[in-house]
Amino acid sequence: MSGGLIAILITFIVVLGLSTSTVAYFVLQRHRADGVAMAQYRLLAEEAVARQESMHRTLRELADRLCAVEFMLRSVDEG
């Protein structure tokens, strides 16, 4: 009886070890996939910031030009 119990315990330990290893493997794979996705999101965010800064510069230039046109119109109106 004792030999059968030891065999069952050894089998249980082996199955538990295999199950734990399998779960750890898939958790690692999911973590790697999340890391790749986060890197892609980071690149996308950096690109969005660069485009936003470019748009800000363009709007600033347009505002400056509009001020110049308004100044010209006022000077023509006064003259």
In short:
It is built from one helix and no strands.
Structure description:
- This protein has one helix spanning 2-78.
- With 79 residues, the chain is mostly helical.
- The longest helix has 77 residues, at 2-78.
- The model has no long low-confidence stretch (mean pLDDT 93).
Q: What descriptors fit this protein?
A:
mainly alpha; about 0% strand; rod-shaped
What is the H/E string?
A: H
Helix content: over 70%
Class per helix and strand makeup: mainly alpha
Number of helices: 1
Arithmetic mean of pLDDT: 93
> Span from first to last CA?
115 Å
Strand content: under 5%
CA-based gyration radius: 34 Å
Low-pLDDT ranges: none
Shape: rod-shaped
- Biggest beta sheet summary: none
How many strand elements? Answer: 0
Topology:
Layout: H1 2-78
